[in-house]
Design a protein that fits this description.
This protein has 13 helices and 16 strands. The protein is an alpha+beta fold. It starts with a helix and ends in a 9-residue tail after the last helix.
């Protein structure tokens, strides 16, 4: 994005943002269609791109309702059509303790919305010739993955039983979360989850555990991970996992750069994403949102959440002294920056100024369902998961970076086939619909992501605003 366009967008969003008021109560603001249309080339009247202004206001009401009802301290929704911003609404506090209203320069933890960025970065290295095939073994670049073992039984080092993996782990296995790796919090296999939680952490730590921050480098973290048993043979099942953290290390090995430096030079810099990175600079701490946890029982104030990461004490303020940057969930960013990322995805790999960062052909290949035989997550996802936040969806496959809808009629809400989407631990969600040329971002800072069915509701709210359809 050229500097003049980014400056115009930033100035407009700053002018329209709710700010802290004298009573330290946080505002609820919907940015009207007239405001959207008044700000230059990046914004437009909804009707000019086939969307209905009055119906878009239902999104604004939804955002305000979930904050007013005490379900979340804040929420923001942005909608793009044909690359133009047709709706942006936000409500609530980014930091309730200090009465700071959410605004367009609020800095969010992106958590797993980091994953597609890192996967796209690896595809750039494919185009640069750093590897020739997605079926290349990971061990060619990270030798510690050469001899992997699969869990059989046991929950201590003394009782652990494993067997050699029947197939080598490949780059495609990492990109599709079929590597056999897992997450400690998902608990597909509780004994292995316990080992993962105790054995490796890609951070940053929450809850103020400063002594656990940056305990080792990214290289060391990956080495520790490779010593733990796999949940299954590579290619046998889909497990939400630390695979993308390993991709972050692959990027370092292939490029000769640190993961933060590679993303800055190849994605964030070219796209003008100046507020995106793995840490929050001290000068920007006032913009950094607090992180909250959902509670089943409301407190005395009627709110069903409590703070678990105070922005002024957060580990995100610490420097990456040992280079442990999580490709699976470590980024922080803002709504204006993420709008640029969404425009890049809508353009299938091209920056605002026409610079091609990724070939459209590679983007289309990435966007296919790469699960074996074209199966969906419901049939190929691990059946033993105990974690309600990982949803193995019917009709949704997995590309090389996102979930992808295969059969719209079998999906549980209005959508388009080929729609790309993924969310994050703290309730964030993004989807890209190339058929309708729509992109949507929803952000809050509320754990867990499955606390409320907001994603399905947002699908209905966005698509009911369309005045025309390009089909399913």
């Amino acid at each position: 994005m050229c500097d003049s366009h980014k400056l115009r967008l930033w100035v407009l969003l700053r002018q329209l943002s709710p700010r802290k008021n004298e009573e330290t109560k946080c505002a609820a603001v919907g940015l009207s269609s007239s405001s959207v249309a008044s700000a230059g080339p990046l914004r437009t009247q909804p009707e000019s791109v086939g969307m209905n202004t009055l119906r878009l206001k239902r999104i604004e009401a939804f955002v305000q309702d979930i904050v007013r009802e005490g379900k979340t301290p804040m929420a923001t929704v942005g909608v793009l059509r044909h690359g133009r911003l047709v709706h942006l609404s936000m409500a609530g506090c980014s930091d309730e303790a200090r009465g700071v209203s959410v605004s367009t320069d609020t800095i969010y933890r992106m958590f797993s919305m980091t994953k597609p960025v890192v996967s796209v970065a690896l595809l750039m290295l494919y185009e640069a010739g750093r590897f020739e095939s997605f079926d290349e073994p990971v061990a060619r670049f990270i030798p510690c993955f050469r001899y992997m073992h699969v869990y059989i039984s046991g929950d201590t080092p003394e009782t652990l039983r494993t067997r050699p993996a029947s197939t080598p782990m490949t780059i495609k296995h990492l990109l599709t979360h079929t590597s056999g790796l897992g997450y400690g919090f998902v608990q597909d296999v509780p004994a292995v989850s316990k080992m993962l939680s105790a054995g490796v952490d890609f951070g940053p730590e929450l809850m103020g555990r400063e002594e656990a921050f940056q305990p080792y480098s990214l290289s060391d973290a990956v080495e520790r991970l490779a010593r733990l048993p796999l949940l299954c043979d590579p290619g046998a099942e889909w497990h939400y996992s630390m695979s993308t953290d390993v991709i972050g290390r692959l990027i370092e090995v292939m490029s000769g750069m640190s993961l933060p430096d590679y993303l800055q030079s190849h994605i964030f810099g070219p796209l003008g994403m100046s507020d995106t990175g793995f840490t929050v600079p001290e000068k920007d701490v006032h913009r950094f949102a607090a992180l909250y946890m959902h509670s089943e029982e409301p407190g005395p104030d009627g709110k069903k959440y409590f703070c678990i990461d105070d922005p002024i004490k957060s580990m995100y303020l610490k420097p990456l002294t040992k280079g442990l940057a999580s490709g699976g969930g470590g980024l922080v960013s803002t709504i204006p920056d993420w709008l640029q990322w969404m425009r890049f995805l809508l353009r299938k790999g091209t920056a605002e100024d026409g610079t091609m960062l990724l070939s459209p052909k590679t983007f289309d290949y990435m966007s296919l369902n790469h699960l074996p035989g074209g199966v969906d997550l419901e049939s190929f996802g691990a059946k033993s998961t105990l974690h309600k936040n990982v949803m193995y969806k019917k009709a949704q496959g997995w590309s090389l970076a996102f979930a992808v809808i295969q059969d719209a009629a079998s999906y549980d809400s209005v959508c388009s086939e080929g729609e790309l989407a993924w969310g994050s631990l703290a309730g964030g969600y993004l989807w890209i619909d190339h058929k309708e040329d729509i992109a949507v971002i929803f952000k809050t800072q509320l754990l867990p992501s499955a606390a409320y069915p907001w994603r399905r509701h947002l699908h209905a709210l966005v698509y009911q605003s369309l005045m025309e359809s390009s089909g399913i």
